[in-house]
Design goal:
single chain; binds 3-methyl-2-oxobutanoic acid; binds zinc ion; branched-chain amino acid biosynthesis; metal-binding
Length: 403
């Protein structure tokens, strides 16, 4: 299991936390973004890692989109061990039949069907009335429910849909057999307060709301995807749709690793937990980044290469005394081997001394001062100071002392 984090909040016992399901859509919404395409084998490998990591539902693809997508979803379904396998379908009979066929070999199959509900989409994209869309919801959800027990329905562009109509659409979907109701922030437009309030209102006003699990699905156009996802959980959602490294349409989706660690580290104010083995986060992040040739930004939370790196002298000094001074979780809790103290012009004596020790040098005070002065001069000229640079300057220092 995961090792304890460094969290400072009073920890909430695991038993008093509510379970939130993790629905990973790296292979569908993630793979859908420009430049993130994966091969069949890569998709199988990523799906296996997600299953092992404890993802509850893997959205394996959009079976009607291509023969390749259909094959990948079918094979992932056949090989699935613990996770539910979902296939996406528009509110079109042919899509739903194809998704049903693709997931049918899974131990736990799910059809995820969606239709737009916002006036903007109804007028400009679908060219349908609200009543027509209600009829489509009833018909297509019922069709999916005839194929599988587990049906998710999404109200695309829910956050730009008037609440009265959204409630009618949700009620119709549940009546037709939907077991999960997803209210996506499709265009990343909502703020956390609005998103939390939307879930509260829908769950209060829809008479059959207790028959379904509510789900969040947030896009990151304003950089609010993770904050909104957490707000949605506070509003009563118990499933989070997210992707590894936050890949996805446009600015991406909520990042799985950020949602999982926010809930874990801040369990004192967010009494929810997931079934994710967080020690596998880094490995999975690297695998996804490698598979879709999509780099992870250096300062990305949790899995960026700087997430556990410290360069400033003050921070390095604190870290050498106690890691909780500048880290709120242990690197090991997310699968990172160790904290790194990056040697650069901001580093101080304490970090330099510790680095020398780690490299096997035991210098006297004068030699140490001399080496430190040379190191600072070098760091001013050079962006990155590597171990080899330090080795060279110390050896040079020692050689001149013997002359
Ligand atoms: O962002 C969105 O609305 C979607 C739906 C298909 C759930 O990805
Ligand atoms: Zn989406």
């Amino acid at each position: 299991m995961t090792e304890p984090t460094h969290s400072h909040g009073a920890s909430t016992p695991a038993s008093s936390k509510e379970r939130v399901l993790i629905f990973d859509t790296t292979l569908r919404d993630g793979e859908q973004c420009p430049g993130a395409t994966m091969t069949f084998e890569e998709k199988l490998e990523v799906a296996e890692m997600l299953d092992t990591m404890g993802v509850d539902i893997i959205e394996a693809g959009f079976p009607i989109a291509s023969e390749g997508d259909f094959e990948a979803v079918s094979e992932i379904a056949r090989r699935s061990k613990r996770s539910t396998i979902a296939g996406l379908a528009r509110a079109i009979p042919g899509d739903i039949a194809r998704a049903g066929e693709a997931v049918r070999h899974a131990g736990k199959p799910r059809i995820h069907t969606f239709v737009s509900t916002s006036p903007i989409h109804l007028e400009h994209q679908m060219r349908k009335s609200q009543e027509e869309v209600l009829e489509i919801i009833t018909r297509t959800v019922a069709q999916a429910r005839n194929l599988v027990e587990d049906v998710e329905w999404s109200a695309m562009d829910a956050t730009r849909t008037p609440i009265d109509y959204l409630c009618r659409a949700v009620e119709a979907a549940i009546r037709a057999g939907a077991t999960t109701i997803n209210l996506p922030d499709t265009v990343g437009y909502a703020t956390p307060d609005e998103y939390r309030a939307m879930f509260r209102q829908v769950r209060e006003r829809v008479p059959n709301a207790d028959k379904a699990i509510f789900s969040v699905h947030c896009h990151n156009d304003l950089g609010l995807a993770v904050a909104n996802s957490i707000a949605g959980i506070e509003g009563g959602a118990r499933q989070v749709e997210c992707t590894i490294n936050g890949i996805g349409e446009r600015a991406g989706n909520a990042a799985l690793e950020e949602v999982v660690m926010a809930l874990r580290v801040r369990g004192d104010v967010l009494p929810y937990d997931t079934g994710i083995d967080s020690t596998l986060l880094m490995k999975t992040s690297r695998a996804v980044s490698g598979a879709c040739a999509f780099p992870v930004q250096y300062n990305k939370a949790i899995v960026g290469r700087n997430a556990f790196a410290h360069e400033s002298g003050i921070h390095q000094d604190g870290m050498l005394k106690n890691q909780t001074t500048y880290e709120i979780m242990t690197p090991a809790s997310v699968g990172v081997t160790k904290t790194s103290l990056v040697m650069g012009k901001h580093s101080g004596r304490a970090a330099f001394r510790s680095k020398l020790k780690e490299m096997g040098y035991d210098l006297g005070e004068n030699q140490m001062e001399d080496a430190f002065t040379r190191f600072k001069a070098l760091a001013d000229r050079k962006k990155h100071v590597y171990d080899e640079d330090i080795e060279a300057l110390v050896d040079e220092n020692l050689a001149s002392a013997h002359d």
